[in-house]
Amino acid sequence: MSAFAGRAGFVATDAGPAAHFGNPLGEQRLLARGRAVVELGLGVVTVTGPDRLSWLNSITSQLLTGLAVGASTETLVLDQSGRVEHAARVVDDGSVAWLLTEPADARPLAAWLDSMRFMLRVEVADRSAEFATIGWFGDTAPFAPTELPETPLVEWVDPWVSVTPGGWGYAVQEAHPASDWTLRIAVVTPGTADRIAASDGPVAGLLAYEALRIAAWRPSLVDVDERTIPHELDWLRSAVHLSKGCYRGQETVAKVHNLGHPPRRVVMLHLDGSDGVLPAPGTPVVAGEKEVGRVSASGIHHELGPIALAVVKRSLDPAATLTLTADDVVVAATQEVIVPPGAGATADVPRLPRLGAVRRS
Questions:
Q1: Residue 162 DSSP class
Q2: DSSP secondary structure string, 11-76?
Q3: Which of 49, 54, 224, 306 could tie 228 with a disulfide, CB 3.0–4.6 Å?
Q4: What is the distance between the terminal CA atoms of the chain, rounded to a whole angstrom?
Q5: What are the tens digits of pLDDT across the range 184-241?
């Protein structure tokens, strides 16, 4: 049960945290300005033991060996074909590596990690039921220290604001909205969450958070389907190190980056809001009479209006006018390019060592 369930206007999501508190757009404005907190309801997996970072480094996409105490990063678990299976926000406190996951992913991620321990000195635990995850934007939490019976166990700072060392950004950096994405997430005990909830500080629901995430082009597991590779969502920017050692799926990461042509690409859609309907995740994106992609997330932004993220065919003309159907209403949409159709195909793409012959088309 959410610690914020007693707040006026509380409307729950299926997962438990608030969808909103009666005024999603007002909550979103406060959240964007760093004046409100949001309960994220993330899964929490811990890894302990002296081999934890070198082990995680060997089986995921990010460089984790030598991760400084308190430093924040992000990593992906890929399958043999380089498709995304799990994603985790990572911070190490010196004795425990904390992995924050989307709620539905905590148990599968913990089970997969546990199956990969072999003889290494690591222990994996799904501790989602023991902690709450509270997010806000900006350097300073919008609640008074007196509201905390104890300090947060760890605090994760989202690296999405810039391309991380060893990463690669396909989007045009000058036009990237990530500069406004200053998300911090604190892992706290239920007692601390209760104290924050009982204060009179502003709170926001997940509808507000999701709209801000979409506007920042920030990928999440909700944008992933059974075919997703990191390049399609511009996720090399924060979750992949291109020159680290081998890990499962690395060959696909290197080949696609060298070729510069992800088979699909994420776009942000600006939706016609005249009819007041919002296409749900999974809604087909149509150009003419042909399906060219699907919506992965949608929301109403306090400045941009109705927006969505969609994964579309790489060959789709960026200038094409698109349509989507919601509640039997046809909604027109225009694209804002995130991953360009020719992403990385120019001479400034760093060449990675080829891992076998690559057929060039």
A1: S
A2: EE-TTSSEEESS-HHHHHHHHHTT--EEE---EEEEEESTTHHHHHHHHSSS--TTPPTT-EEEEE
A3: 224
A4: 53
A5: 999 999 999 999 998 889 999 999 999 999 999 999 999 999 999 999 999 999 999 9
